[in-house]
Design goal:
alpha/beta; Arc Repressor Mutant, subunit A; D-Maltodextrin-Binding Protein, domain 2; 3 domains; five-stranded mixed sheet; 11 helices; 14 strands
C-alpha cells in the first residue's frame, strides 16, 4: 500500500467499525465486500498487526485496532478540520449535509423554509432530508445531524440542546359547543380524545397546576399515527387533542379555529436536541447548519410561547 493511500484506508476502517460490518460499509461505498476486505488486509499488512477480528456476520476490534481507532481517528479529524479551515468565507461552503427529523416537522412549513433560506445563503450546499418517526441510526445511515424530540437514548452521539417542546390540550369550537368545555382534568374522562398511536402504552399523563397534580390514562377514542391527521381530525370536531404540540396548533389558536382547554394546567414538555456523530471534528458546513437551526429554533419557540 502506498503512503498516500493510507488516509483512504483508515477512513474505510473507521466506517467498518461504525457500521459494524464489512458488507454495510461496502453497500454505503457502492463496492463489493471483497474490495473492502482487501483494503483492510493491505492496511493491516502495512501497520504489521491485525486490527479486526472478522466473522461471517460482524467485525470487532483487536486491542491494536481499538488503540488505532482511538488515536488515528483524532489525527484524521484534525486533517479534516485543517482542510475545512481553508474555506474561510461562508459563501464558499459546499457539499452534502444529511439531516434527519420527525415527520411532523417536515410536514410543517417552518423547517423547510429554514433549509431553503440556508441554501439561498449557501448555494453550493446540498441537503438530504430524511423524515421518519422511527429511530434513525446516525452512524449506520451516515446522517450528519438529526433533530430528536424526547429523552435521549443513544449515548454514542453528541447532543446540542435546542429547547423544550411545549404541549397543550385543545379542541374545535364546534366540538366544545356540542359537548361542553372541561373545567377540571377529571372531566376529560367524559370526553372523546384524539391521541397519537402508542400513547396509551406510555401510561398515565400527569397535569400540574402549581402544587396540584392530576393523572389520567388516555382513552384514545381516535388514535392516529400522524400529527397532521390528528390536527385535521380535531379541527373537524373529532374530540380533544390531549397532547397537542403548541408549535403545531398556534396559528389555529390565534384565528379561533381551535380553543385551548384548561390553560392553567401544564402538560409535561419534551426536550429537543440536535444530534451529531461522535467525531471530534465537525465539518464546517454541518456546524453552520447546526448554528442556523439552533438560532431559528430559539426564535421560533420564543414566538410560539409568547
Amino acid at each position: 500500500m502506498r503512503k498516500n493511500d493510507d488516509l483512504a484506508a483508515w477512513r474505510i476502517f473507521f466506517r467498518v467499525i461504525e457500521l459494524g460490518s464489512i458488507s454495510k460499509a461496502a453497500n454505503e461505498a457502492n463496492v463489493e465486500p471483497s474490495s473492502i476486505s482487501r483494503r483492510l488486509s493491505a492496511l493491516e499488512q502495512r501497520v504489521g498487526t491485525q486490527l479486526l477480528n472478522r466473522s461471517s456476520r460482524s467485525v470487532t476490534l483487536t486491542e491494536a485496532g481499538a488503540h488505532a481507532y482511538e488515536k488515528i481517528r483524532l489525527l484524521v479529524d484534525e486533517i479534516d478540520h485543517a482542510t475545512d479551515a481553508l474555506v474561510l468565507e461562508p459563501s464558499t461552503l459546499s457539499g452534502l449535509i444529511r439531516l434527519a427529523a420527525p415527520i411532523s416537522l417536515g410536514d410543517h412549513d417552518v423547517l423547510l423554509q429554514w433549509l431553503t433560506d440556508f441554501q439561498i445563503r449557501h448555494p453550493a450546499i446540498q441537503i438530504e432530508l430524511k423524515l421518519s418517526n422511527s429511530f434513525v441510526d446516525l452512524l449506520e445511515e451516515n446522517i450528519d445531524l438529526a433533530i430528536r424530540v424526547g429523552a435521549l437514548k443513544d449515548e454514542r452521539l453528541i447532543a446540542r440542546p435546542l429547547g423544550e417542546m411545549h404541549a397543550i390540550m385543545c379542541a374545535s369550537p364546534h366540538y366544545l359547543e356540542q359537548h361542553g368545555t372541561p373545567q377540571h382534568p377529571s372531566e376529560l374522562l367524559n370526553h372523546r380524545q384524539v391521541i397519537y398511536t402508542g400513547m396509551m402504552a406510555r401510561g398515565k399523563v400527569t397535569l400540574t397546576r402549581g402544587e396540584e397534580q392530576f393523572s389520567l390514562m388516555p382513552q384514545g377514542h381516535m388514535r392516529i399515527n400522524h400529527l397532521n391527521a390528528i390536527h385535521r381530525a380535531v379541527l373537524a370536531g373529532a374530540g380533544i387533542h390531549l397532547i397537542a404540540p403548541l408549535w403545531h396548533c398556534v396559528d389555529d389558536l390565534q384565528t379561533g379555529r381551535l380553543i385551548q382547554i384548561l390553560p392553567e394546567w401544564q402538560l409535561p414538555s419534551s426536550p429537543v436536541h440536535l444530534m451529531r456523530q461522535p467525531h471530534r471534528h465537525t465539518p464546517q458546513r454541518v456546524q453552520a447548519l447546526s448554528d442556523w437551526l439552533h438560532s431559528h429554533w430559539t426564535r421560533w419557540m420564543d414566538h410560539t410561547t409568547a
